[in-house]
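Why show two proteins at once? Because comparison is the fastest way to build intuition. When a single record is shown, students tend to memorize it. When two are placed side by side, the eye starts asking what differs. So, the first record is below.
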Amino acid sequence: MFGSPLALAQAHETRDKLMASNAELAEDGAIQIVTIKTTGDKILSQPLADIGGKGLFTKEIDEALINGDIDIAVHSMKDVPTYIPEMTILPCNLPREDVRDAFISMSAASLADLPAGSIIGTASLRRKSQILHRYPSLSVEENFRGNVQTRLRKLNEGVVKATLLALAGT
């Protein structure tokens, strides 16, 4: 089964909660997790805004739901676009995890410790704006995309000096 560890963890948590709340769903084989690779997962070389925005992480999953290939879809709310496709609803949300960001660097303990010109990797416009507002001497690589493991590998390879990730996903 291929899929980002974070997406799979969310799917498993959803499955476990469904199984705990309904005895029929707890039976062997009652719930199957289907991994769907989305356009947002496949195209990592361009900023999301250039290729269609946040909906690229939900499009194929929503299509599978609408086509009846799956019965429910699990999304990270950060990936859900403002307007959802017709024939879909957002009936529930799991409790929100920690909302803080984690600073990760191989050479510094904080953004303040980074030398001028250091490149920070993020695909988040919010994080970019916050970083540059507080630390205008830093630079931001705004096409720093991929799952957590991909971004940590890029950091380890020296593509950037630091990154910020959602604490809940690390």
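Second record. Ask yourself what differs from the first in the token line.
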Amino acid sequence: MTAIEERLTALEAQVAALTERLTSTPAPPDTPPTLEGTFWALDGLKQRLPADGTGAVLYTGTVRVADQHYDWQYGRTVDDLLDGDWPELATTLSALAHAVRLRLLREVLGGRQSTGELAEIEELGTTGQLHHHLRQLTAAGWLRSVGRGRYAVPAERVVPLLAILAAAAR
């Protein structure tokens, strides 16, 4: 391949990339801006899906909190999600539907992992109430016991939790 042919091939690739960016579906007016102003994750998902399918949902994240780093990506087809047993998810979701439990998750993610540290936060209620909420979160899989009286958000739950919070915040 000559130098001119190589330059022409490179220019064609650049024009194709620019055309794709200009013709991609714009965000609805209420949608907050995405990283770098484009739908790069969505475009990548679309490229991996069959054209005749019903679509897919993907969430992904890279998170650093309290000196811990989490990378996570998960996706499901729309058919899988619509065919799933939604009532089965009620316990997992209802565990998040309490202000004290959300506060507990935030505190544990922030580094307060022992019941003693958590009990120092007055807004969380009595020690009995604290243990009740910790049991609810643990039973639903949002917390894991990592030693006597110590808790952590399981690594596989960090990005999903933040994705749920992002969706709830609209």
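One difference worth noting in the second protein: The mean pLDDT is 87.
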